[in-house]
Amino acid sequence: MHSITETCVVSVPKDTVFKFLSSVENLPKWSTQFIQDVSSVDGKYKAVTPIGEVFLRFEVDSKAGLIDIYAGPTEQHMMSAYLRIVSFSENSTGIMFTFFQWDDIDNMTWQIFCEWIKIEVGNIKKHFS
After folding, report:
1. Which whole-number Å values give the CA distances from 27 to 12, 36, 89, 103, in the listed order?
2. What is the pLDDT, as a whole number, of residue 80?
3. How confident is the model over 76-119, as pLDDT tens digits?
4. DSSP 59-122
5. pLDDT category of residue 26 using cuts at 50, 70 and 90
6. Residue 7 CA to chain centroid, in angstroms?
7. Kind of pairing, strands 44-49 and 3-10?
8. Which domains does the chain have, with CATH numbers?
9. Which has the closest alpha carbon to 38: 22, 21, 50, 26?
């Protein structure tokens, strides 16, 4: 199984970064390649993406700085991506975004996702600059 991790460091407190990135509603602001729109219906999130409409679910742990993002065509079939937010000092925060090539992701789609994750982390860095 292949994986990709992209990182950046921003001069912003961890809590500020975590609050922004752990909000599903903020996805279109930084995940510009994958998320075109997010909506909530009956407490469940859906997103419009280049590969169609997907369900979204976040599992977060603010103390540990973990944001697990799940997306998929059904609530039973979701792939995950992982954000880790780490405080280096009062105003220095590291962000790591990891994605795996799951069995149902072909190599061409994987290459596209690898390019997108670089752009998305760049968008996060720009947002906090």
Report:
1. 19, 9, 26, 25
2. 93
3. 999 999 999 999 999 999 999 999 998 888 899 899 989 999 99
4. EEETTTTEEEEEEEEETTEEEEEEEEEEEEETTEEEEEEEEE--TTS-HHHHHHHHHHHHHHHH
5. very high
6. 12
7. unpaired
8. 3-127 (3.30.530.20)
9. 26
How far are the Cα atoms of 1, 2, 32, 55 from residue 123, in angstroms, in the given order?
26, 23, 8, 22
How many beta carbons lie within 10 A of that of residue 87, not counting itself?
Answer: 15
- In total, the chain counts a number of residues equal to 129
Q: What is the pTM of this model?
A: 0.92
Contact between 42 and 55 under an 8 Å Cβ cutoff? The reply is no
Reduced to 3 states, what is the DSSP secondary structure of residue 21?
A: helix
- For residues 32-61, give the mean pLDDT: 93
